[in-house]
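Lab notes, practical 5.
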Amino acid sequence: MSTQVITTIHDKRKRPIEHAWNAPVYLVLAIYAVLIAYPLIWMLMSSFKTSAEIYGDPWGLPETWLVQNYADAWERGISSYFLNSVIVTIVTAIGTVLLAALCAYGMVRITSKAANIVLILAMGGLVVAPQVSLIPLYQMLDALGLLDSLWAMILPYVAFRLPMAILLIRSVFLGIPHDLVDAATIDGCRSLGVFRHVYLPLSRSILMTAGVLTAYFAWNEFLFAIVFVNSDENRTIPAGLMSFRDALSTDWGVLLAGLVIAALPIVVVFIALQKYFVAGITAGSVKG
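Output from the prediction step:
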């Protein structure tokens, strides 16, 4: 009993020291949070200003909160750009996660050199920069008749996000106990049944993580969207916002309102799915 009391007193004495050592870490994190949040807050405030106010008083609050900037941005094309971005992002995320999960499942279940070859190819895909393949991709899409369409963005996005998604999902699949697989097989599940009823439910966090990372990439990607798509009706938000800039004058309030509309969905997705995101990243870093 006395030993427990002494231990408790010793722990209480250590807590102030630990808090003192953690104070610089918290300070650095607080400064980093301010550096990240301030540009977003400035963009949000400036989206309610006129261009004259932005130039005259860039750091102050708006004299009149111009909600009309958002209406103007929506009417000038953000509505169609937004819909295209939603379609491209959803199809890309679902396609990438589904293909990566099937590929990772095959790599885990097949014990042969073929699985190792696929793993090496997936790792090699991580070092290929999108800019390097720009011309070959353009020629390939042109030959397939897919230029200036949503598929001209979806297919390259899926291809470039597959390697990372495969490695993340595979790392979690490796940790699934074989006893569960044997039990499902005894119950009558075939290969796809094991994949559906065992692997997918136990890997929900990493699947959500791969989906969020893919959605973030597809929503903000600019290079392929501006090169492979020429028509205004097929552009996504990053490429479409370029039309808001004029050679002589730019309505910065409307442009910033468009940027807020573009940033809002992905911020909401991250906030809503952050527990899955953190759990998935943690799970994906344990096994290799």
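Observations recorded by the TA: The radius of gyration is 25 Å. The chain has two domains: 2-46, 78-284.
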